Amino acid sequence: MSPTPPKRFEKPSIWSFILILVVLLFLVTGINNANITLSRVIGGVMNIGDFLAQAFPPDFSRIGPIMSAMVETFEMALVGTLAGVIISIPVALLSSRTTNSISFLRSLTRGAVTVMRTVPDLVWALLFVIAVGLGPFAGILTITIDTIGFCARFFSERIDELDKKPKEALESTGSGYFGVITGSVLPQATPSFVGTSLFALEKSIRGATVLGLVGAGGIGVELSAQMSLRNFDQALMIIIIILILVLVVENISQRIRAKYI
Amino acid sequence: MNAIEVNKVRKVYNQRDVALDGVSFTIKEGESVVILGHNGSGKSTLFRTLTGFEEPTEGSVTLLGREVDPGKRRHLRETRKKVGMVFQAFGLVDNVSVFQNVLFGALGQVKFAPATYSLFASEALRTRAMECLDRVGLAHLSERRADRLSGGQKQRIAIARMLMQDPEIILADEPIASLDPKAGREVMDLLADIAAERNITLLMILHQIPIAKKYADRFIALKNGEVFADNNVSVIDEDFETALFGSEGPKDPPADEKPGSMEQEAKSL
Ligand SMILES: Nc1ncnc2c1ncn2[C@@H]1O[C@H](COP(=O)(O)OP(=O)(O)OP(=O)(O)O)[C@@H](O)[C@H]1O
Ligand SMILES: [Mg+2]
What is d(CA B227, CA B5) in angstroms, rounded to the nearest whole number? Predict the structure, then answer.
């Protein structure tokens, strides 16, 4: 007798069955509560058509002030990301098993990073607008926090998966902690850190364009103003400029990554 | 003076895996000794205990008259400065230059780590690094990235890095296990010559008996974490090899045994 092959279908456990039921329930009520009707869908398409009709041709008359808002957005993203990346390095060292043997400190920094990552950036922006007032400084702080949440996590994961042998080799020379870190851990991790930081910059540019919606500086302020004034042709121009900036940054960052990593 | 003293060392991992059991021996200054033993017999664990990477469960280790205690970081670092290590996997930092890798050998000697960065290092240190590279015959590769080297070259660079420590003891854990025979011979010759010319105590883990006989006078054989023999290499013959390694090749572990346990190691050998 030949051995029997495994069953084609595993019976799901009671827990996965319950999970599937709950998800289905949310799906149904979600669709229900959104009040989706054919007339609303058709109306929506018409409204977007309306927007497009009024938006074309985009109005480039205010390109000057818009460009300076765009530059501000880019600067916010750049400064915030750089600050976030720099802070992320010691934070990552503190939250890695490889570089920090004090488990209490590890949990503490990991917890802080988790909070930074899980609270959405618009919420941080609202907090910082209250703390430091309207304008780009609140935006920079938001992006810094957002970048730490992203980079510190990936940096520390990278540190933990590094080859430990160079580290031990340097430890065996009698080197202190700082020498081992700067001599083996950081050089080994640098290519990955650069890649992650460039991703963070791309993410920050996208994020920075909407921070203005809550008053944290950048082009978002302009966009929300023009939209609520129903100046759709101006709004479209802003959208086009955002698109160009994001594409340019993504493109450059991709080239650097391809070359460096 | 004794360079290495190992006194009744016992090492138990996870409260149940006995890797070393009552290991004792002493090695005099300038001796060349080889450690033999089957896979899992505790050779690497012994080395890690010697250099304070593992704390012995019982017993003590003394290098150059200084007790090795992983709890006393400062004292341990002082001891490590004079002990050069060579590893099977080289332990080079891949994405920096050969020259920078050699400079890192001086990390134990400088007050601030940046004093070993090629950019900031003193002329004296840079010259010394080139001398060490020259000693292993690879001065012409100083600017090459460390990952663009053959295995034999990597091991010689690792030896140059270790020379920066001006070591009194060299511990080499299977230094030629990942090299081809020719590169292996070159590395062994290099280690032996360096040890001889500077009267360095050389302790190495090797698997090939002929090489052990050629490069060492004395051997210490470990079997299941215990010293099985400690003698002159001339006594090693086929009978001895059979007694140490078993007559058959490694068998598959029995399915009901937990892999990696000492009992299973013992049965399969
Ligand atoms: N970090 C560790 N945690 C738990 N057990 C370990 C650890 N390191 C080694 N061991 C166990 O200790 C025993 C000795 O291992 P060790 O690496 O010292 O042997 P070895 O003689 O160097 O073997 P090889 O010839 O394969 O290098 C083995 O049974 C191994 O499974
Ligand atoms: Mg080993």
Answer: 14
Q: What pLDDT score was predicted for residue B254? A: 46
Q: For ligand 1, pick from B10, B14, B43 the residue to mutate: most ligand atoms within 8 Å of CB.
A: B43
Q: What is the pLDDT of residue B263?
A: 42
**Atom of ligand 1 lying closest to residue B38 CA:** 25
If you count residue pairs, one on A and one on B, with CB atoms under 8 Å apart, how many are there? Answer: 86
Enumerate the residues of chain A whose CB falls inside 8 A of the CB of residue B104.
Answer: 170, 173, 175, 179, 183-184
CATH number of domain containing A78: 1.10.3720.10
Sites in chain A below the pLDDT cut of 50: none
> Which ligand has the shortest distance to the CA of B37?
1
Number of domains in chain A: 1
Query: What's the CATH code of the domain at B227?
Result: 3.40.50.300
- pLDDT, residue B269, reads 41
Is residue A11 situated within a structural domain?
A: no
What is the ipTM metric for this complex?
0.87
C-alpha A97/C-alpha B101 separation (Å) is 24
Q: Are strands B218-223 and B17-28 parallel, antiparallel or unpaired?
A: unpaired
A180 domain-assigned: yes
- For residue B226, how far is the Cα from the chain centroid? 19
Residue B65 has pLDDT above 70, yes or no: yes
Say if ligand 1 is within 6 A of residue B39 CB.
yes
User: Could you tell me if B161 and B174 lie in one domain?
Assistant: no
Distances (CA, A) of A171 to A3, B106, B217: 54, 11, 30
* Ligand 2 midpoint to CA A160 (Å): 22
* pLDDT at residue B257 in the model: 43
For residues A209 and A245, give the distance between their C-alpha atoms in angstroms, rounded to a whole number. 10
* Residues B181 and B67 placed together within one structural domain of the fold: yes
- Interchain CB distance below 8 Å, A187 and B93: yes
| Chain A contact residues (CB < 8 Å to B) | 165-166, 168-176, 178-180, 182-184, 187-188, 190-191
- Tell whether B16 and B100 lie within a shared domain: no
